[in-house]
Amino acid sequence: MRRLQAMELFVAAVREGSFSAAGRRAGLSPASVSRQVAALEAALGTQLLNRSSRSLVLTDAGREYLARLEPILQDIAAAEAAAAALQATPVGTVRLHSRTMFGLRVVTPLLPAFQARYPELRVELRLAERPASFAEDEIDIELRIGAPPAGPLMQRLLLRSERILVASPGYLAAHPPVRRPDDLLAQHCLAYWLGPDEVSWRFLAAGALQELRIAARLTANNGEVLRELALAGHGIALLDDYTVRDALAAGRLVRLLPGWQVTNSEFDQGIYAVFRQASLLPAKTRAFLDFLVKALPGVLSD
């Protein structure tokens, strides 16, 4: 930065005609300007200015240096202005990564309102059943279900959610009632596929933890599949509450064991936004995060 300042002072001294005028423009003393220009000359190994008590005159080297330097300084100023504009105004492309079901059922309906508010912003939404790699995928925000592991990335809790057991009224009418977790062992269960290990569902009530190994009738690595099968009366599914809220309200699904917390992983099932750590968050990232914080409670309570 000192070399850059010396370059700027050199140009200012030439254009203003003196070290005093250049110093007033930069808020420095004439002696400080003179020292920095002299240091620049020493670093270059050539004299740029012939000095007298009344004027500054460019040498041949100084004239050549000025001609090449001024466009560079103008480009630097333009680059700084462009970067500042990106920081202050949401423009460009905001790249999002989300689990498939959350992206389909929650994020997608919000995008028209977001882009109506920020018409200059483009949105790139990627859906997958795996966590994103910020380095490889070049994303700005990942939307995760459950607390992310500790690491160099920043995280923001957007909303609390929970997993619940649901089944269709038709399925429940044709099968024995489910009054406690053990009753699930005699039911047709629909489970999310987490790998080759046996399916385990964990139950928590009144401080008591119970874990059941479920002989799932069907497993799938997509929650939308499980939701559709539950609606079709094919069995009991463990799903995030926001994915079945509409079906519960319409009576197409019924919640089971409401007195128990249920999960196939951890009980903390908040919805988190994960993004790169930065002292100054890009305006596009900040805009989408703030929008989600305000919009999610409304869309999930409808």
Automatic annotation (TrEMBL):
Alphabetical list of Gene3D superfamilies matching this protein: 3.40.190.290, Winged helix-like DNA-binding domain superfamily/Winged helix DNA-binding domain
InterPro entries reported in the protein's UniProt record: LysR-type_TF_proteobact-type, LysR_HTH_N, LysR_subst-bd, WH-like_DNA-bd_sf, WH_DNA-bd_sf
Record domain HTH lysR-type: where: 1-59
SUPFAM superfamilies the record matches: Periplasmic binding protein-like II (SSF53850), Winged helix' DNA-binding domain (SSF46785)
Keywords associated with the record: DNA-binding, Transcription, Transcription regulation
Highest taxon listed in the record's lineage: Bacteria
A Pfam family that the UniProt record links to this protein: LysR_substrate
Similarity comment: Belongs to the LysR transcriptional regulatory family.
Protein name, as recorded: Transcriptional regulator
